[in-house]
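Margin note: ligand = HDE.
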Amino acid sequence: MATKKKAPTPAVTSPKPDRLPAETHQTASETGSHLTTNQGLPIADNQNSLKAGTRGPVLLEDFILREKITHFDHERIPERVVHARGSGAHGYFQPYESAADLTKAGFLQDPKKKTEVFVRFSTVAGGAGSVDLPRDVRGFSVKFYTEEGNYDLVGNNIPVFFIQDAIKFPDVIHAVKMEPDRGFPQAASAHATFWDFISLTPESMHMIMWAMSDRAIPRSYRMMEGFGVHTFRMINAEGVSRFVKFHWRPVLGTSAVVWDEAVKISGADPDFHRRDLWEAIDTGHFPEWEFSVQVFDETDAASFDFDVLDPTKLIPEEIIPLRPLGKIVLNRNPDNHFAETEQVAFCPSNIVPGIGFSDDPLLQGRLFSYLDTQLLRLGGPNFHQIPVNAPRCPMRNFQRDGLRQMEVPKGRVAYEPNSLAPEAPRECPMHGFKTLPEEVTGEKIRHRSETFADHYSQARMFFRSMEEPEQNHIASALAFELARVEFKSIRQKMLGHLLLIDQALHDTVADALGMSGQAEEILPAIPPRDLAVSPALRLIGKDAGILKGRKAGILITDGFDAALLASVQAALTKEKMAVALIAPKIGGAVGDDGVLLEVDFTLSGGPSVFFDTVVLMPSAEGCEMLVTEAAAVNWVRDAFGHLKVIGHVPEAQPLLDASSVEADAGVVAIRDSKSTATWIKTAKGGRIWEREPTLRSIG
Ligand code: HDE
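Resulting structure:
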């Protein structure tokens, strides 16, 4: 084989080979701000490393290159072992009125006083780079920077949990995370190890009903409820203690997407929730939640047919109603995702006087775990000095040194009691935190209380409280997830559990799996009872009936009716709804008035899954082109399949036909302002649930 001759090295002819083209490259003389190393040394050249000759090897001497690359190599810290993917925002909490009868917590006394908060929403199972819309529980963590220290309420969007004892947490998390040999699936519970663990853990059944419900695929972080999950205490100035359960209620209503939408959104925009939160705050539409408590005392607790220390149980609002205490408003995006959202360290043990823990064994374990994890994640005991974690009130003690000490404590006294530093801080029996004195007796024992043994009654209550479409979605989710489990024995066991929860649910799932009559018999520790249903648990009906905070997508083509579009946009803006324009080309579309209108998305870049409701406003010619375009047909078909209200001009009829859209109450013709108003009224009603059985079967 002939060998090619090596080409001679070309001579460098450019007079300035080390410079970027002048037109794309600014220097400090133009911007007035010079780049430096971490030591403050001004940098002359940020484009080229130090080399022996322009084409020669890079020199070890290049301390600027080494500093930059070394810092880059160390940019990541260990991601959270759970809840790794999150989105945060700053805001404030403000009480509606004094809650002094209930608690002495300073931030709950004065309706005029705002307390700064930082909130982080998260998924649980996926890594930091995973998608926003898997089927999963969502974290809802709030750090209140109160004048009495930081108070962290580290909750979820589901009011119960998978397990009753902290010792099981590593197991449930290992089961749901990527399987250790193969490293998949990422951010998904639909796999063998998760269902293997669950099928052997009856206490999970109530949580499983929630996790398979639409709660696990929220429409937006802004439209998600939050729960403290455990029973906590509130203690007033007289020392009277009551039990509480914490709730967050979104002002925009609670809302979910449908599963097929979640799947498509995950591909089209993995950052769907993060973007949604960011954009809402960025455009001044500040999300808001009402903070409430269910208050009950020992006598109430004794009257419940479950143990209030059991985190797999909830107290129906029909039994203990919510008492609103105040609101949080998120009004500022982080300046830096890493510095704030990644480094924020929540610890359920961060508490203030007036709030206390209960003996819930899951909570007790959490009181240890979070501080421990932050030590690893944030590299030492001084993480409270990171700005997002630092208390806003004075922080004084004699703790010293340690990795990443950022402060310079003064003086020779670092102990207490002392006589050498009379100005130094001292304990404060008057205002200091005091644990509620409680009598504790009992054997040292590893044993679950018998009062925790009813694993099915509340699971049944939750399922039976749902509206029919919600029940169907739970059945569908179970059928989907279990069909992804390759071990028949696990599916059979799960069918056995479902049989104990609800016969009809079992029958539907067994039928969808093609496994009727194959349920493994499971003997419950306590036979499930029929509890009163709790309509407050439903999602349908909780979506506020408003369009505020939601998003409409309007599809246009060249020749669209410019006047009608303007009036539709004005009507939606009046409803405080965000509007996006979609056209076949990102350059825009020219209206019948000859004016080019810029648009936000193309059909593939802005699929209809991004929007709560859609309007089809093509011209007749534009529609002729759209019917031949798969992206357009899918756009409309998906909007219909996802049960959305569709507004359309008469010219769009061929596109509706091509997309197999059957006229129903949710398909509304728009010709003028009157019919626009009808469409808006229909859209306020939310999804067209009656459409669903005509489109999808369970499975
Ligand atoms: Fe967590 N959990 N958890 N958890 N959890 C963490 O702490 C843990 C539990 C929750 O936005 C970790 O800082 C144990 C219940 C949220 O930064 C870790 C147990 C609830 C977040 C940890 C539980 C939660 C976490 C991982 C069983 C709802 C995200 C990183 C005893 C009430 C916080 C970190 C954020 C994070 C441990 C159970 C909510 C490992 C041991 C129940 C929202 O410490």
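The longest helix spans residues 361-377.
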